[in-house]
Design a protein that fits this description.
Two copies of one chain form a homodimer. Chain A has eleven helices and 25 strands. Chain A is α/β, with parallel strands linked by helices. Chain A has a five-stranded parallel sheet with strand order 3-2-1-7-18. In chain A, strands 9-16-10-11-12 form a five-stranded parallel sheet, with helices on one face. In chain A, strands 21-22-25-24-23 form a five-stranded antiparallel sheet. In chain A, helix 1 (11-23) packs parallel to helix 8 (299-313). The mean pLDDT of chain A is 97. The interface between A and B is large, with 70 and 69 residues.
Chain lengths: 452, 452
């Protein structure tokens, strides 16, 4: 019987295992989990810390029993130490420190990413945390419950920083968020970032932008966060300054790296080393619009790439269709989403972009409860091709699935004009005869005509 | 200066006028409105009757001033009596009974549809209503406010029947809904119709299915609704048994008709009569999947067809992309939506369909407030092509825009498998790493594999 070995039991690894078992029920599939938490939703950790999710067990996408019922073998607390591509073996160390050599026919490396914090001093101090793995989430909440910190500084205004500002505010902590850029959530346009910053402040989060954090120090039982423009004190610090791919194991085995130091893979998720595939936060990701690899670690992407790696690890011929960078985040009452390229990204990608903002009601204004949606559409002036969209609105105004309509249109290379041809659903309590997606497209076209 | 004349000032007519003025600001555009309510949202009438929309003026998509500001000329209370295609003139009668002859270079017929009620006797009795035009909505609400009827019978369990059952319940009337089919909302599968029926009953609507209504009679100051399986008494009756295209004017001028007696048009919305276009509820509609015309009068379609007719009426070369039959309705707390073909429709269309239902949470179950979504996916067994989807869930679970993701995929002829390639947005409060749309696609594939 052929044996597929998978290193890593988070989104990409488990997705690969499930797909491999699905396409070839005769295939032997083994998954090495470095910790005791296979297939957990690490995206859910902010909601566990906030207390909205009472039990950490609820964060499991599937239980260990669910997983084993599909026929895969799970080896928990098994850390892979080395890969021998010539012998097709992996050496792993189990929880008791015992070495174990596992043979494979095909291998999927899904070692994920780790927090990128290297240029901040003092991260090993008690009360300083990162949030990347289940264990870190458990320790963080335990710390809050045991020590009752009153003030926290969050370093980094990206997705995790935003969600944790929300989460820790809910927990009753006074939150200061420090972002080195000019606005929070730099993955959307500054205007939208500004609104999010305002939403944070409306909930009593102190937002400091344009500050680089250099060190955390312990002083008289508290922590001092020092930046280039001053310092602030806290009882607890969370560093959420992004991630970097965890590639040491694969690199040692000869796997080549590319963008951002991530493992290089082709569209079949194959590395340069025979019989070795890789997927998830440790690899480069093909961008469907830029038509080149980028580094864009996301759970959705990890699932898709893992599925392709699993299919091919089982002898199939799956191809990863590419990312559009679709993302959404809810911060207190506001939802912000994006897909495709923003203006500056499109320009850097060789397009001639025009970005137009349009404000529309999420449903007919005459029906109670209508809320404003802000839609920013980016299209190519020359070809009229849709390049991207950013949406912002109140929770409940179908922001997320509206960005998905844009994402589905982008997937097919539609023009902005062609969005008007889409037969989208309408009833006055939920939309307009032209959905806001289409109204924004029409506004883009008017602006493009005037600009021409 | 060239003159575009448009007969009809509802969705299709105004959409045509707006688009014509947009593509050719030098074009003279005249719109004949039979009543005093140009560009009103007749889809909003149920919410006006319910009182959720206090003022009927709020139902206007745009005010008369908004419309005139675009440069179009509006002739209110002008009923077109005849078209002379050889002379390119239209005779209209104004509110004072004066005849007026208008010359055109190009003509758009957007005469809409009228209530189809012909086989029920007694519809002219006081207290018996249909709901198709603004005037009817105004009269209906006035009647309720003046006479305070306690009990109403609604004949017809389609979209309007459902919305009016909701609306009149909100107004405090005791509602009986009579549907001749085996379940309400026959445009979705009976299972979904059954749930909607239950939702109506949960709100104290009496639902009678499988009964044909033959007559309404006046008896001792009340109305008696007689059907083939008995009778029921009421103070008021609303007949909502569908519509038929209003084509007499165009037919008299030689415009050919097709499916369901609707005006025959090509993909450019041109009729067989030179210089005469037609759009909206009075015409056949090209079905993108069936690749043949159907009769499917919807506001969304009227807007799109009107836009194409207006573009071509202004000398452009627009093509109507076709309908997918996308529809959504909210009934009390439940939202039901569909797009594409249901199983039986697909079979009749020459496909070999398989329909699979999947239940998923609208977002990660660990995050508070997760609600069940039911998704029914129809695909072609042989080609794997996506053919349609039906969704049902509680209001607030992004049912409408999820059906739009399916609609956008259908528009591009995607396979069910390819839905997994879509880069859809995810955050735990709003979705899952595989959106329910994709989970349902995967369930369909598993079922198709097992059935093969």
């Amino acid at each position: 019987m052929s044996h597929l070995l998978i290193i890593g039991a988070s989104d990409a690894g488990i997705s690969a295992a499930l797909r491999a078992r699905e396409v070839d029920p005769a295939l032997e599939v083994t998954v090495l989990a470095a910790d005791e938490y296979p297939n957990y939703s690490i995206c859910g950790l902010p909601f566990y810390v906030s207390g909205e999710v009472p039990d950490w067990q609820d964060l499991a996408h599937r239980t260990t029993e669910d997983l084993e019922r599909t026929g895969m073998r799970l080896l928990l607390r098994h850390v892979a130490r080395s890969i021998d591509p010539a012998a097709r073996t992996v050496v792993a160390v189990d929880g008791e420190g015992r070495e174990r050599r596992l043979a494979y026919d095909r291998l999927v490396v899904a070692t994920g990413a780790e927090s990128a914090t290297s240029d901040i001093a003092g991260l090993d101090l008690p009360g300083v945390f990162t949030l990347r793995f289940m264990e870190e989430g458990l320790v963080l909440r335990q710390h809050i419950e045991a020590h009752g910190p009153a003030e926290v500084v969050i370093v980094g205004g990206g997705y995790i920083g935003m969600e944790m500002a929300d989460a820790l505010t809910r927990r009753g902590l006074a939150v200061t968020l420090i972002e080195h850029g000019a606005s929070v959530l730099k993955t959307v346009d500054p205007d939208f970032g500004g609104v999010l910053g305002g939403e944070l402040e409306r909930h009593d989060v102190r937002v400091i932008t344009g500050m680089d954090v250099q060190a955390v120090q312990a002083r008289e039982g508290r922590l001092v966060v020092r930046g280039d423009r001053g310092f602030t004190k806290a009882d607890m610090v969370l560093v959420a300054t992004g991630v970097r791919p965890a590639t040491a194991l694969a690199r040692a085995a000869g796997v080549a790296t590319g963008v951002h130091g991530a493992l290089r893979v082709d569209r079949h998720m194959a590395t340069n080393v025979p019989h070795v595939y890789a997927a998830g936060d440790c690899v480069e990701t093909w961008h469907r619009l830029l038509e080149r690899p980028v580094y864009l670690p996301l759970g959705t992407t990890a699932h898709k790439q893992g599925r392709v790696a699993g299919e091919n690890g089982a002898g199939g011929e799956g191809t990863y269709a590419g990312t559009l960078g679709t993302q959404v985040v809810k911060v207190f009452g506001i939802v912000v989403a994006r897909t495709g390229l923003r203006d500056e990204e499109a320009r850097a990608g060789g397009f001639d972009p025009l970005t137009v903002e349009w404000t529309a009601w999420d449903h007919k204004a005459y029906y109670p409860g209508a809320r404003e949606l802000r839609l920013r559409v980016t299209g190519d002036r020359g070809s009229g091709r849709l390049l991207g969209a950013q949406l912002m609105g109140l929770h409940g105004s179908e922001v997320a699935k509206r960005v998905d309509v844009f994402a589905t249109a982008l997937f097919h290379g539609m023009t902005v004009e062609a969005l008007n041809d889409l037969d989208l659903s309408y009833t006055p309590p939920l939309s307009s005869p032209w959905d806001p997606v289409q109204m924004a497209a029409q506004a883009w076209q008017r602006a493009a005509r005037e600009a021409a």
